[in-house]
TrEMBL record:
It comes from Stappia sediminis. Its EC number is 1.1.1.22. NAD(+) binds at residues 30, 35, 86, 122, 155, 266, 331. Pathway: Nucleotide-sugar biosynthesis; UDP-alpha-D-glucuronate biosynthesis; UDP-alpha-D-glucuronate from UDP-alpha-D-glucose: step 1/1. It catalyses: UDP-alpha-D-glucose + 2 NAD(+) + H2O = UDP-alpha-D-glucuronate + 2 NADH + 3 H(+). GO terms for biological process: polysaccharide biosynthetic process; UDP-glucuronate biosynthetic process. SUPFAM superfamilies: 6-phosphogluconate dehydrogenase C-terminal domain-like (SSF48179), NAD(P)-binding Rossmann-fold domains (SSF51735), UDP-glucose/GDP-mannose dehydrogenase C-terminal domain (SSF52413). Keywords: NAD, Oxidoreductase. It comes from the Bacteria. The lineage of its organism: Bacteria, Pseudomonadati, Pseudomonadota, Alphaproteobacteria, Hyphomicrobiales. The active site is at 263 (nucleophile). This is UDP-glucose 6-dehydrogenase.
C-alpha cells in the first residue's frame, strides 16, 4: 500500500515516518520547500527522541521520501492522509479548517479511483463529512472512501505512543475505509492493541473528548494542590492515593504551573466553541480553560511575592521554558505567560532550557539566556523550576545556594526534595506541598 502524508508538521512527520517503519511506502508532502529540502538532507525540523534514527533508516532503505510535488505523490497513492494544522481562529477560538479544506480540494484533483482519504488532523465534528463533500463536488464521479484516524501522540514520546498506543480510533463510512485502516495498523494487532471502529462523527468527538478530559484532570489536581497548601496537605500523596482507584487512574495527576502545548489549549477551546454553537455548553471545559489561564498569572504572582514588597530590579532565575520536557516546543507554555509578567513587574529574568532556546528567543525579549542550568542562579533573588527536565533533577542545592543572592526556590514541578534545599539554607516551596513529605 502506498501512502501520502499531507503536512510534515509534528503529527504528519511522526505518523508518516512510523508507517514507513511498518514497511509501507510513504511520501511526506509539504508546501514549505525549505523544510522538504532539509528533510531530504536528513535534517529533522523538530526535536523528538528517536525520530532521526527512524528517518535515516527508512529513507536509506527507500520506503520514505519527502517532496513538494503534491499531485504526483497523491496520484500514485492508495491512501492519502491529511495531517495539516488546525490552528485556533482568532476571536472565536474555533478551529481554522482552511488548510484541511484546501488539501481536500487538491487531493480531489489528482487522486486515482479507489483512494482512501484519511483525516488525521484534529478536526471538529462534522469536518470529515465536509471533506468528503468537497471531494465529491470537485470530482462527482470519483470512487473514494473517507476515514477519520485521530492521533494521540504526546510530544517527547510520540514514537512510543505511535508504536504502542492504548487504542487506535478508526472513524469510517464504508467497509473499504475500515479495511484500509485495519491493514495500516495490522502490525499493532500483534500487540493486541484495540481498534475502535466507529462513525466519522464519533472518531472526531473521541479525539476532542480525550484531550479535554485530560486537561480537566490536570486542572482538578492543580486546584487540589492549592487547597493542600492552605490546609497542610501534600498533593502528591493525595494524587497517588486517588490514582490507585482504577476508575480514576494514576496518570495526568501531576500538579504544576498549568497545562500548555500545542493541543490542550487549542482543542479545549475548539471543543467548547463547537458545544456553544450547538447549544450544549461544556461548562466543565469552559471552567477548565479559565482556571488554567488564571493559574499562570497566579504562578507569576507567587514568584513576585517571594521577592518581597519591591520586586523592581530583583533577579529571577528560571529553569525550563518548553511546555514540558523532551521537546523544544514552547507553544502555549506557561513560561510565556510567567516570564513577561515578571518582567512587567520590573524583574530581571535569567533563563535556561536544554532545547527550547531557538524557539523561545523571539518570544521572550529582554531575558538573559544561560548556557548551563547553574548559571541561572548567578545573583538570583529567586529561582523557579517551570519544566521538569531531567538535567534539573540532580542539581546541587548547595551550589545553587552559593550562586544565588537570595533564598527563594519555587519548584513548580515538584522535582526536588524540600529538606535538601532547606538544609542548604534556601526557602523551598513546591506545588501543593505544605507539609514535609516523608
Ligand atoms: C497531548 C495529549 O497527551 C496527546 O494525546 C494529544 O494527541 C496531544 O496533546 P502533548 O501536548 O504532547 O500531548 O503533551 P502532554 O504530555 O499531554 O502534556 C500537556 C501539558 O499538560 C503539558 O504542559 C504538561 O506539563 C501538562 N501536564 C501533563 C501536567 O501539568 N500534569 C500532568 O499530570 C500531565
Amino acid at each position: 500500500m502506498r501512502i501520502t502524508m499531507i503536512g510534515t508538521g509534528y503529527v504528519g512527520l511522526v505518523s508518516g515516518v512510523c508507517f514507513s517503519e511498518f514497511g509501507f511506502d510513504v511520501t511526506c508532502v509539504d508546501i514549505d520547500e525549505g523544510k522538504i529540502e532539509r528533510l531530504n538532507n536528513l535534517e529533522v525540523p523538530i526535536f523528538e527522541p528517536g525520530l532521526d534514527t527512524l528517518i535515516e533508516r527508512n529513507f536509506a532503505e527507500g520506503r520514505l521520501s519527502f517532496t513538494t510535488d503534491f499531485e504526483s505523490a497523491v496520484s500514485r497513492s492508495d491512501v492519502v492522509f491529511i495531517a495539516v494544522g488546525t490552528p485556533s481562529r482568532r476571536g472565536d477560538g474555533e478551529a481554522d479548517l482552511t488548510y484541511v479544506f484546501e488539501a481536500a480540494r487538491r487531493i480531489a484533483k489528482s487522486m486515482k479511483p479507489g483512494t482512501t482519504v484519511v483525516i488525521k488532523s484534529t478536526v471538529v465534528v462534522g469536518t470529515c463529512r465536509k471533506v468528503a463533500a468537497i471531494i465529491a463536488e470537485e470530482r462527482p464521479d470519483m470512487d473514494f472512501s473517507i476515514a477519520s484516524n485521530p492521533e494521540f501522540l504526546r510530544e517527547g514520546s510520540a514514537i512510543e505512543d505511535f508504536m504502542r498506543p492504548d487504542r487506535v480510533v478508526a472513524g469510517v463510512k464504508d467497509e473499504r475505509g475500515a479495511d484500509v485502516l485495519r491493514q495500516l495498523y495490522r502490525p499493532l494487532f500483534l500487540r493486541e492493541t484495540p481498534i475502535v471502529t466507529t462513525t466519522l462523527e464519533n472518531a472526531e468527538l473521541i479525539k476532542y473528548a480525550s484531550n479535554a478530559f485530560l486537561a480537566m484532570k490536570i486542572t482538578f489536581i492543580n486546584e487540589m494542590a492549592d487547597l493542600c497548601e492552605k490546609v497542610g496537605g501534600d498533593v502528591q500523596k493525595v494524587a497517588s492515593a486517588i490514582g490507585l482507584d482504577n476508575r480514576i487512574g494514576s496518570k495526568f495527576l501531576h500538579a504544576g504551573p498549568g497545562y500548555g502545548g500545542s493541543c490542550f489549549p487549542k482543542d479545549t477551546s475548539a471543543l467548547a466553541a463547537t458545544a456553544r454553537k450547538y447549544e450544549a455548553p461544556l461548562r466543565l471545559i469552559e471552567t477548565t480553560m479559565s482556571v488554567n489561564e488564571e493559574r499562570k498569572r497566579a504562578m507569576a504572582d507567587r514568584v513576585l511575592r517571594a521577592l518581597g514588597p519591591d520586586p523592581v530590579g530583583k533577579t529571577v532565575g528560571i529553569l525550563g521554558i518548553a511546555f514540558k520536557p523532551n521537546t523544544d516546543d514552547v507553544r502555549d507554555a506557561p513560561s510565556l505567560a510567567i516570564v513577561p509578567a515578571l518582567q512587567a513587574a520590573g524583574v530581571e529574568v535569567r533563563v535556561h532550557d536544554p532545547e527550547a532556546r531557538e524557539q523561545a528567543e523571539p518570544l521572550l525579549p529582554g531575558v538573559k539566556w544561560c548556557d548551563a542550568p547553574y548559571d541561572v542562579a548567578d545573583g538570583a533573588d529567586a529561582l523557579a523550576v517551570l519544566t521538569e527536565w531531567n538535567v534539573y533533577r540532580g542539581l546541587s542545592p548547595q551550589t545553587l545556594a552559593d550562586r544565588m543572592r537570595g533564598k527563594a526556590v519555587i519548584d513548580m514541578r515538584n522535582i526536588w526534595r524540600p529538606e535538601e534545599f532547606n538544609k542548604a539554607g534556601l526557602n523551598y516551596s513546591g506545588i501543593g506541598r505544605a507539609s514535609e513529605p516523608e
